[in-house]
Amino acid sequence: MTATPQATFTATDTAFHVEAYEKIDYSLRYVDGAFAVGNSEIADSYRPFGRCLMVVDATVHRLYGEQMQAYFRHYGIDLTVFPLAIREPDKSLRTLERIVDACARSPSWW
């Protein structure tokens, strides 16, 4: 993922204007067997950090949670999982706060 902040500033004798944005650019790959132990691609991304925070749909977690845990355990990467419903009403600031709280409860993140 690439994030490139950009800002402009203009001023006159009586006013100023600031405009800023951050472009976020990333690719998404579809992989069969993403959490198969023989596929180290995800582990290779998190190995330098030694940890991973996984925010995942609750249904996906119910179906594949054990496989995900086994995968990260195999590669010696600490996994913190935050399963949540991804319905539109659940996309809220309160949900974001719960994710931040999950990070705070895991001291290895800081």
**Shape, please?**
elongated
Uncertain regions: pLDDT < 50 for 5+ in a row?
A: none
**Count of helical regions:** 3
Report the C-alpha radius of gyration, rounded.
Answer: 19 Å
Descriptive overview:
- The chain has 110 residues and is of the alpha+beta class.
- Helix content is 32%, strand content 31%.
- It has helices at 41-46, 58-74, 93-104, and strands spanning 2-11, 16-25, 51-57, 78-84.
- It has a two-stranded antiparallel ribbon.
- Strand 1 and strand 2 form a beta hairpin.
Write the layout of secondary structure elements.
Layout: E1 2-11, E2 16-25, H1 41-46, E3 51-57, H2 58-74, E4 78-84, H3 93-104
Parallel strand pairs: 3-4
Antiparallel strand pairs: 1-2
List keywords for this structure.
110 residues, alpha+beta, two-stranded parallel sheet, 3 helices, elongated
Quick overview:
This protein is of the alpha+beta class and 110 residues long.
